[in-house]
Amino acid sequence: MSLSQRLFARTLAWGDDAQHRIYGDRKRQLFSDLAGTVVEIGPGTGVNLRYLPDSLRWIGLEPNPHMHGYIRDRLDGRAIDASLRTDPAQDTGLPDDSVDTVISTLVLCSVPDVTDTLAEARRILRPGGQLRFVEHVAADEHTPLCWFQHGIRPVWKTLADGCHPHRRTGAILQTSGFSSVEFERFRAGVPPVSPHISGMAVA
Fold first, then answer.
1. CATH of residue 9
2. Average of per-residue pLDDT across 91-113
3. Are 139 and 196 in contact (CB under 8 A)?
4. Domain count along the chain
5. With the C-alpha atoms ordered 192, 137, 129, 123, is the resulting torsion angle positive or negative?
6. How far apart are CA 144 and CA 164, in angstroms?
7. First and final CA of the chain: distance in angstroms?
């Protein structure tokens, strides 16, 4: 795999403590009651695992193999039935209606096609299953931050493993075919990606 993927894995691991400080409370609220089969899209270094209860069946879809060692370390000693795969989020290879929850945190910004990824999440979720998410999103149109996100896009995408700082993930979620979508907006992180949403969508 590429040197950039190896470096990105190390960069993410270095920033995990900051993620816990910024997002920890929200993740506890979103993930502490999960049960059954959970699929996590792009788990990265496994930073979310500390917020998941034991006794889950957890399937991590992480295409970057340089992340896998970090994930295995965090699974060590946990009572989680874990499976780690490199399948992409838009083509999981999982059966229809087979998953209780899909988790997505700071990853819909970097998938090749958000619409395809969300369609795949709906396909594998059981009726009434949920997508639970924390994502950064585009700034409001015609604001200085919006212009800055567009201007920095080429460099940011290269440095952050394909991340699109200006992606309108909230709007896409609301038109993605889920029976309901609820989220709250908040600001966090470094200025180019400070606008965020967190919430859930029901299949």
1. 3.40.50.150
2. 96
3. no
4. 1
5. negative
6. 17
7. 35
